[in-house]
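Checklist before submission:
- one chain only
- standard amino acids only
- sequence pasted in full

Submission:
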Amino acid sequence: MTIYIGNLSFQATEEDLREIFAEYGEVSRVSLPTDRETGRKRGFAFVEMKDEAKEDVAISELDGAEWLGRELKVNKAKPREDSRGSRSGSAGVSGNSRQSL
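Returned file contents:
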């Protein structure tokens, strides 16, 4: 399972996140996305931990906590959706149905 951390300070580093979440269990991966054009951090991150039960404890204890001057939003990450695929797929369906009328 992956944990989503939102409203993250732009000063936070992958090492900072690893240290915070390591208090709850073994961290297997930390991802701190940056903007492709500017290289700036985007204000959110993803953390994966080895033990799902420990992830749940980390989520419940860190959600709403203040860290580096920001109130964190911590929850289970939702599966990534391919917005390009869903748009073209729905456009193709409606386009096809119009042609058959």
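Reviewer check: Helices lie at 14-22, 52-62, 83-100.
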